């Protein structure tokens, strides 16, 4: 618990005076878990197009609301929202950023998911055509230093494929301003 509290305090400090505050979180949105009914890995991680009716019933029984339609990651964060994207590709993260690409909205997001910096490294190493659409907004924010990325240790979790490359990402208010401009 002490390590978690230290990491949370470090995240707040990196976000700056106008940035992220854990007590301000109003929503938790989860994408990319896979089918809980069919996948052992998914059981450890809540919208995914792969959810079965059984999965949705289980999630509802746990007191959570299942997102009824595939948003494609394009959810607007009107208030501080933690997005948990454990197995999502860069394109889904980029859709989330695109939906919130307005002055003052990006700092409402915190993303717990695959490392943005590793996405950047993979795109740089693969050249112009690593496959799929270029996640322009994600790459632009990382390259501009507008993302505070805090790697999440695996803590010896026994299913190694479940949480590899995980990091907490906070979008820094000062760096997400007008200097970034529009991204088409």
TrEMBL record:
Domain of life per record: Eukaryota
Domain called SRR1-like: residue spans: 47-169
GO CC annotations on file: cytoplasm; nucleus
Pfam families: SRR1
Family membership noted in the UniProt record: Belongs to the SRR1 family.
Name of the protein described by the UniProt record: Protein SENSITIVITY TO RED LIGHT REDUCED 1
Provenance organism: Monoraphidium neglectum
